Amino acid sequence: MKTIAQQLNIKDFPFEVMDKESRLIYHETVNSFWSKSEYDSDGNKTYYENSNGYVEGWQYDSDGNVTYYWNNEGVIRDNRPAETIIVNGIKYKRID
């Protein structure tokens, strides 16, 4: 499969694509290494992937603090507050 730069016949590297908020969402080098990122409405990076197969993701609280992180190498950091759910009138809390 061709990279974006190959499809567009780009010869000037690095090739980068920014979103309307000037955040880097795609980057490609002359050797066809690429990476892409996604952001939430607050500008926090929520997803990253590259051509080597590495993937990671983040979730944030309303103050911009990372509450959950994961990657495809098996790392998970869960800093979310314990959740309470009620089932048939009984309260349960999420435990790690």
Question: What would the keywords be for this entry?
Answer:
96 residues, two-stranded antiparallel sheet, 9 strands, mainly beta
Question: How would you characterize the overall build of this protein?
Answer:
The chain is mainly β and 96 residues long. Helices cover 4% and strands 46% of the residues. It has one helix and nine strands; from the N terminus they run αβββββββββ. The strands form two sheets. Strands 1-2-3-4-5-6-7 form a seven-stranded antiparallel beta sheet, with no helix packed on it. Strands 8-9 form a two-stranded antiparallel sheet. Strand 2 and strand 3 (34-39) form a beta hairpin.
Helices and strands, in N-to-C order? HEEEEEEEEE
Average pLDDT works out at 91
- Shape descriptor: elongated
Query: What helical percentage do the residues reach?
Result: under 10%
Helical segment tally? 1
Quaternary status: single chain
Beta-strand fraction estimate? over 45%
Sequence stretches where pLDDT stays below 50 over 5 or more residues: none
Major beta sheet summary: 7 strands, antiparallel
Q: What is the straight-line distance between the termini?
A: 41 Å
Total number of strands? 9
Q: In which order are the strands of the major sheet placed?
A: 1-2-3-4-5-6-7
Radius of gyration, CA atoms, in whole angstroms? 19 Å
Structural classification = mainly beta
